Amino acid sequence: MGRSKLRDEILGQTKAAQENGSEPLLWAVRISSLLTSHGVVLPCPELAKELVSHICWENNLPAPWKFLEKAMALRIVPPLLVLGLLSLRVIPYRHSSPAAFRMYLELLKRHAFNLKGYITLPNHDETMTMLEEELQLCKAFGSKHRENGGFLLVLFLFAIVWQLVDASCDDEGLFELSGMAPRWPVRAFREMDVDDGDDDVYGEGMMKKSQRTKLEISNKAMAMELIGEFVQNDVTRRILLLARQNISTQWEGFVDNLRLLVNHSSTLRNTISGLPEILMQLISPGARSTVMESRRKPLLNSAGLCVGVSWSALWLPLDLQLEDAMDGSQVNATSAVEIIKGLLKSLQAINGTSWHETFLGLWMAALRLERDPIEGPVPRLDTRLSMLLSITTLVVADLIEEQENDDRILDDLISSLRKLQDYQSLLTPPKSVTSAANLAAIKATTFVSATKLDGITSSETTLNCTGSLHHLIIESCIARNLLDTSAYRWPGYVNGNGNKPQHDPPPSEMTGWSAFMKGASLTPAMIAALVSTPASSYAEIERVFEIAVGGGFDDAKIAAVSILCGASFLRGWNVQEHTAYFIIRLLSPPVPTDHAPMLNVLLVGIAPVDSVQIFSLHGLVPELAGSLMAICEAYGSCVPSCGEEISAHVVFSNAFAILLKLWRFNHTPVEYGVWDVPPGGSQLTPEYLLLVRNSHLMTSSSCTGRTKDPNGRRLAKAACCSTPEPIFVDSFPKLKVWYRQHLACIASPLTGLVNGTTVHHTVDALLEMMFRRLGKNQPSSTGSSSSSGQGSEDGSCYVRPKLPAWDILEAVPFVADAALTACAHGRLSPRELCTGLKDLADYLPATLVAIVSYLSAEVTRGVWQSVFMNGTDWPSPAANLAGVEEQIKKILAATGVDVPSLEAGGGSSPAVLPLPLAAFVSLTITYKLDRASQRFLDLAGPALESLAAGCPWPCMPIVASLWTQKAKRWSDFLIFSASRTVFLHSTDAAVQLLRSCFAATLGLNNVCGGGGGGAIITSNGGIGALLGHGFGSHFDGGISPVAPGILYLRVYRSMRDVTFLRDELVALLVKSVEDIAAVAAVPVKLHRSRNGCPSMAAVMTKVKLAASLGASVLFLTGGLGAVQSLLKETLPSWFMSTRHSGGEPGRNGILRGYALAYMGVLCGAFEWGAGDRSPSHPAASKRRAEIIGCHVEFIANAVDGKISLGCDPATWRGYYTGFLSLAASCMPAWTREADGGLLRRLSRGLRRRREEELAVALLVAGGLNTMGSAAELIIETAA
């Protein structure tokens, strides 16, 4: 029998049964037998369509409805398809046919929640496809037909609930009142035209009007009850939340309509007590987290706990990142705001902390940076204060803006700032800003007492209002509109014992910025006041900039430039980034020589290490580099002339010295390629800096609108401040030629000097200038003694050559080679060599760069003989070498490092250095320790340290000894620097240092003896034990111990074998976990469980702390390459090769697994962030999907048994459950990028291992690609 005949027979039997009043069950049995006899698989979608069409509307009678319900109950027709078909036909006609609408609601109540029995029916996918054809769900929701029937099931349930919401709003007349519109058709056009006398069109004409009205009221209540039941039912609620997560655009419209109903429906309020609150739960901000509702693993349960260690230990990675940013030898092309913001988001996601806890952790980490540090010749306290009072405040402001100024995040900010008052030990200001803190306290006191403060300076007060860093933090937040002056009235904020100013100073006493803004002229006294006092507002700094670019006198311009580079740049925290923008604009003028005086003042003003670091913190290094390259290109091509106030050589040298601080110019290219991707620090080449600068410029077109990237807007503004066009290295041909020569000089021996060329003549001219006092014995570019005899004995009549700086730099490597060769062959004495090189550097200070580059390259080639530092030919370190070596041993011993293989170089062994290194160190110690020389020593110092560190031991102690003789006040720093080189010569020393870092952080002390090892608690551990409080000669007997974390942060950049350290970090983490477990097995009095041992929460917190330290160290040391190799190679290899090591296989094993999982996820979060964009390397996020996908595939294969594992089962279970739980709940962006098929295969494997909730969580996090599978699994695993 054909389909049409079968259809006719079924309809015929249905009409006959209807007329005869047959029992629905009897009818259903007959229809089922008929379909089965014809080979039709039940349930039959075609029959569902026929039955619904039969009812609507020619047979809208009780009997057909009963037949339909019985067919649904016996699965003769697919219930979901029937409900979908009825929703289109019944809801728009619910007023004309209230009885039919009631039947629809009853069927919905009976069948919409029995999803578990429906998804396993035959033809389920076919049924859902037919449902899609009828309802056009994908078109309605703007989605493509994806995956399986589960995807359409989510859309269907969402549509059903939304239809009920729209119908309820329409019944209440809310759309007309609000002006909003329904999303679904809730009122048919034909129904609106039916008059009272023709209301039998839908078969319900016999119903009395009172009955109809009563039924309509009842229907409204039942519809709203059903909405509430969809929200309260565990399965349907989770499926609706899937729609919220993955169909966000349409969800917003649903939320608007639901909120309209909740807020304005009287029926809803009177239907069920608490129903409005139940419905609001669906659209509350926290509802998304309930999609998974998994039995969270201990790794997640302990996220917010810090039992046994300080609460702030959660933020250990942030402390390390901030401390690392204080390394003055490095600059970063990425803004510290962007890095810290991304790190905070990742830590907040993983730790599950509130914004209050997040902000408090940030403030405390930044406050720990502030101290009176003595790391090096310059304290660099300004950099640390900039991080606290400018960068941190910008991070907070950006986070609040990204949250669209939500009142809750603002409240959390206020509560965190008020909480800071409980940490007074962190709030004591350093001496340099005590007056600023006192003035901030006076300002608050005066405001509270309603006394005018205008014109008061710190010198005009008694300073009895003692201020703290808390006052400065509050002022910085007020300046950026994060707080208002109501903060002055917080309890305890104002010191009640402080004396208030008794009167306003007379106008004649007004000085500083107040007087300047009121029109006072720039007298020398005024200039001195403005240079030493930071501006407090943008208007003040803008006024100074207008003078600098105005058409007034040169003296006024130079004064304005001096003011900009003074305290306003270093300590004007509230306007620091604006001051930096103005400086960059001033560094980008036209090229005429009359700008040389102003440019030179600018260049000298921003030359200190603190200034360069502040540009780096604000992410302005690329913009600064672009401006400096233009200056160098222009002034390096100028021939200096007599009578110039500021010569082109001076401007060029100062600009060139700053430019070369912005990348690792003295490091060999081989260091850049340790991994398949270069590490972040090595990317600071001229090409890379310009690439980043141009990327900032390209985003400037979006600066006009408000985007969710405030820091991007700031950087785009900075890029626009300089040249408004993209620039490339090819834009600077002279710089490009020098840079290529520089790289060639590093990579291979010097060649290419041809007799008779311009470069050859320049080399001879420079050699004559350097060694003119030697007469005929001066070296020459040909390697033989000069016979010209033109130089006079005293050189009094000699005129230095007038050459462009670029021509000189091109010749310097050949000059240095000739001089060094002459010294090696005895034609020049060491003193003459150093004097000649110093004369060359004095002639053009920028030549020091080329000299450093050449000498460094020659040392690494190892072809020069060593020379004896005997005090006759070369300076001798003998006076203090033994003491320096002894201090180095003490520093290492204090951090738990013992390296017996590095013996002292003193005693009977003569001190020797390679000839180029001896020349290098001898040249540097000829410089005076003044501000003028400091700019160039800042450039040569790191190069000398790097070079000496790479030479055999004890070259570095010898160099340190020579420099401590010259600068005794720097001895602590120099000895500390020398001690760092030990770790470059001994991988075992590096491992010992890392072991000390773990022991200090965890409060553990490894005790070896008797053939075994143990671990005991020796301190609370935490960040204080790891980073300490700097170093220096604070104690009797010499230098104080150095915290192991500080030592490692100042060492790791020079370590080349990162692969070895990566593997050792994993081993150290596993060993630390075993030590933690061993301690947990010993009864203790503090934080113990009932059996006297530490609770699982305390143990897990320690495990997380160890893992966060391991992840932080690995990320800082190896960057992207280390993270990739950890997930692709190290962890898979470890699990496949490691065998059970003894102890408690259950508890210890699962702790090991959790620790490795936490470390792996943290490493990925640090590099790629928790969201859709990487915080530090946007390009790196393109590889995230590949790396995470590769690792998830490894887990899936191992779960499926396709890979043989060597670790114990507990360790493996702890790892895969921990990693997948964290990835699904904390890093959903990672999971969304994974292949949907892979996630579904992994979820099946997890279910076989009885990890159903984890399988659901993984599919939920997979987004649209796995939404259908997630819905089906939610239904299948429902109780």
Automatic annotation (TrEMBL):
InterPro entries, alphabetized: MED33A/B
Region annotation (Disordered) ranges: 776-795
User: What name has this protein been given in UniProt?
Assistant: Mediator of RNA polymerase II transcription subunit 33A
Membrane: is it a keyword of this entry?
A: yes
Domain of life according to the entry: Eukaryota
Q: Where is the signal peptide?
A: none
Q: Give any single GO term for biological process.
A: regulation of phenylpropanoid metabolic process
Q: Does the keyword Transmembrane helix apply?
A: yes
Look up the record and report any one GO term of the cellular component aspect.
Answer: mediator complex
Here the segments flagged for biased composition (Low complexity) are 780-795
Name the UniProt key words of this record, in alphabetical order: Membrane, Transmembrane, Transmembrane helix
Give TM regions. Answer: 72-91, 149-165
